[in-house]
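Limitations
The structure tokens in this dataset are predictions for the assembled complex, not deposited experimental models. Users should treat interface geometry with appropriate caution, especially where small molecules or nucleic acid strands are included. An illustrative entry is reproduced here so readers can see what is and is not provided.
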Amino acid sequence: MKAAILSIGDELMLGQTADTNAIWLSGRLADVGVECVQRRTVSDDCAMQASAMRELADVADFVIVTGGLGPTDDDLTRAALQQAIGHGTGSLPPMLEDGVMLSRLERWFAERGRVMPAINRRQSLHPAGSEALPNEVGTAPGLRAKLGNATVVCLPGPPREMHPMYEQCVAPLLPVSPMKCGMVHAFGSGESSLAECLGDRMRRDRNPLVGTTASGSVVSARVRGRDQAASEAAIEKELSEIESLWKPFAFGRGSTTLAGSLGAALLQRKQTLAIAESCTGGLAGSLVTAESGSSTWFLGGLVTYANEVKRDMCDVPQTMLDQHGAVSEPVASALAQGVRKKLKADWAASITGIAGPTGGSDDKPVGTVWIGVCGPQFEAVRRFRFPGDRATVRDRAAKTAIALLRMAITDPSNRVSLLWEWPVDG
Amino acid sequence: MKAAILSIGDELMLGQTADTNAIWLSGRLADVGVECVQRRTVSDDCAMQASAMRELADVADFVIVTGGLGPTDDDLTRAALQQAIGHGTGSLPPMLEDGVMLSRLERWFAERGRVMPAINRRQSLHPAGSEALPNEVGTAPGLRAKLGNATVVCLPGPPREMHPMYEQCVAPLLPVSPMKCGMVHAFGSGESSLAECLGDRMRRDRNPLVGTTASGSVVSARVRGRDQAASEAAIEKELSEIESLWKPFAFGRGSTTLAGSLGAALLQRKQTLAIAESCTGGLAGSLVTAESGSSTWFLGGLVTYANEVKRDMCDVPQTMLDQHGAVSEPVASALAQGVRKKLKADWAASITGIAGPTGGSDDKPVGTVWIGVCGPQFEAVRRFRFPGDRATVRDRAAKTAIALLRMAITDPSNRVSLLWEWPVDG
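Predicted assembly:
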């Protein structure tokens, strides 16, 4: 079965509102193994809506439309469905008033101590050839009709009305054959290098199908069964093979985040962490504490943005700052050792660099970041040169510190080799 | 001129990634008065991409495609454009290698001390009948071709590559009838309340047209001339009237951020800032240091996640922690005073709360956050109760601390009244 999603509204087309309905519906369809072949967004324009409904009914078995069912003049989904049903017949089907829907509407207002505005009466209309679907949460009933061989269901735009109506009116009409799928995430190498490691696995005729995406420098492999021939075990085998191919960059599966993988490693060892940040100004701490339960293993940190704070709060000698500058190997080392000692943590990291756009020099260009990691019987300090703008350099620096910590903690063999072989551009 | 947007990627169709590119492009097109007639999203499927390109070229003069230009097997935009160009001719145009693009690619890797993986060579290919567009930021060149009367431009998916390529390769091709527009931003009150303040200004037949949007709890009013009749002066008048109506929540215009508005206030007064964060774990510091030049006014901070760190690093008495708990008025006050004194800052803020999902109680439910602000001859500590999940509570808490600082610094009259009248739910 193939589905398509049509989102309606000027506010979407003007870029003023994110189309969270389409994302939500896509996820729900993927969960039950229904392939979504197209998503489309059009303005509050009756003719465009009608032709979109017809075109999507040609390529999908199931078309889900959201928005345009309100009571105002720019709510045109009822009229568009009427046009789409009538298309090619030379006439428009009549609009019918649904008595049950009308009394529901009147009751909805009465329960709130209000008389129904005249304008809302049109919400009880539906074109002949379609049926109205009850809305338990708001005023706008949905609509359902056949266009050719496809079923078209129109749902109201507000998510808190759309979600329950989907569960009640759409979900039961879909086949339940959950698509088997899984994800492996990696950080520390580029998408093209990691994809190259996968070789033939990414061929488009394979089952399961493997694809990669990159978001915020995290590269993910998606493994997805094309049909029932792809067994649970085949997906699992693929995922674990990708994890080995992506060593040591692979850090987790599914909803695991980079910081979550570090937290799990610390939790397992009952160890704690502290961070000293200069150019990232708290970003690494923020990523770490975004994880619920991080208070078990994260003690806190120092945001040593000014040199005086590095000296007074983290015991970095003034002579060292004068001689080497704040962005240097000895200062990164002193920050990591300092915050570890002050906060009595098992592990610590430090980040000091030049995020730009100003502050770079020939010697230390923008993007130069020193990262220190230390723990029981271990210390490493590495220089990186991250490409990109201020936000990207900071993001990469914070995530690299977290990834280096995870690698050093989980695998002692990483401590000698890997920290030194990690690519300089992260 | 009519435009259409085509977004490509399995990760979008599976609902795993929000299509921020389409939203961004929609906004940019609206800014210059180009009507976007359709947005469409399809999977990494060559035939579907090709037919989408052709169908959109039938309804629009300009088609902007994003995604699918990477080096891997599931990047099919080059092949889809080849199919779309060849459609109806009975043959596919050959793929040509662009020598300039190839040497750019090789240089890109060389500059990062790496050899170009073989897989990336295909990024220098483009179908005959199209031309390659240089990418200054990443490896994926764009593509441009004519399909019928329409111009199709294909841009890479990562926003930090797509945005500059749009400015460089697409914006100059659009008609130059820049609609006059401007934005006012506010934080601290909800979108519906702020919209209500604007009253009739939001009527759809007005010129200039006023609309509101909310993103990350920042509410923005967009003022846009419908045509040349809306003068520069009329837009300016509208913007400054909205700023007064939105007092004291309005913090800036255009590209000004909340942290940037705080930085400007400190810079003007040659004053400095320090922050102590518990539940936000560095997020406020990260927002503040996202501003280039923040080192002039931001000294640093303490991430006092564990109670021991509050005590040892920020001089919060153990008896106070035992008696009132970490999420309390006296601890918020001690943290703000402590970090101000330790870092020798003019101004300081503290944040201590329960971000959830666990850790709440009847007395201190999830979302309870104490925020302290102190400066020369000034101190205020306030309790908030932020709605939403962990990420939302943390985001609102960090931004509220920044907004309270700005208000206290910029207007002494706020210091008595506003800090106490600010809505408890932020």
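Some entries come with short summary sentences. For this one: Residues 390-410 of chain A form the longest helix (21 residues).
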